[in-house]
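Backbone description:
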Amino acid sequence: MTSTTIPRRQPRCGATPIVATALILAIGATLGAQEAERFGERLSRMPVDLRTTSAISGAGSVAAELSGNELTITVRFNGLSSGVTAAHVHNAPVARRGGVAFAVDLRDASGTAGEIVDTVTLTEAQIAELRGGRYYVQLHTANNPGGELRGWLLRRDE
């Protein structure tokens, strides 16, 4: 009987670096993908002065998602005293009034009920203000041009 030596197969090294590189890239992409930050609150009647207290009606909610520097705002409202004429994001400490930081595009919204969705690009300073709880959305109507409903963009941990 003669013995034959069976040669051992050498591992294929060429495939391993490719697989390893693909795995590293996939893990890096997963770690680099940021989950959107969520903000929002209910819309409440906020009289600008005593004269407007009885002229304000309605309710709703505001929700926002920050992904990178893109903020998508969704405003739902109903029962306003008159048609919505403008929507703005204002800057102020919670429970205070502040100036307009930027406008929200109404698109086709103009009635006493509806939904507004808009995406805006924020600067780093604006992102810091948002995360600091200093932004609120305010709806303005024909009967209440100074503002009818207001809702703060407060962080929502889901």
User: Anything to note?
Assistant: The chain has one domain: 37-155. Residues 37-155 form a domain with the Immunoglobulin-like fold (CATH 2.60.40).
